[in-house]
Amino acid sequence: MFNFSNSTKELLGMGVKIGKRSSGDITVPGSFSQFLEKFNVSNLEFEWKVNYNDGSVLNQFEGENQNHFGNIDLSKIKSVEQISNFIWPTDMQEKRIIVRLNWETGLFEFINGFASQDVRAKCCVSPLPGEKKLILFNKKRESSAMGELSNESEEFANMADESFFYNRFVIGYEVPGGEKMAVIVEPNGDIKLFES
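RE: above sequence
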């Protein structure tokens, strides 16, 4: 947490503005765009972790190395998790786990984060039947702030020289026929259904 605070202070000193907790938006000066790709990787709020049937684990980040979707042995999956890159402030035993997808049952467990009853009813009760194909990726939105800010957001951005970006973390599966059961974990911990 100390490192997170220091890096946040350093970013604020460079002109990065942290948006409201409800949106999770971050604005960066246009001149910062050359560093944006590196910043996006270092600023991931969550990362995935795959637990295998034999007890081994594959983490998205292992030291300086990053594993990708292609590194996952799909034939050995027991469960897939989105975990936070900081300790989630709850009394739960598994503080870093936000969402766990039990690959054997096809059901989600929302260990931490904020999932509505509608999301829980869809993802935690009736799995989709059939063979599963894993859905696991980060979705980044980046756009110019020009003309896109609501009145509520204007206080956080200088309209002339900034762009917005935010990360969304998608975890789930697809069955034959194209039906999907997946959720998006937003930077602030909100969990929503992934529809597209």
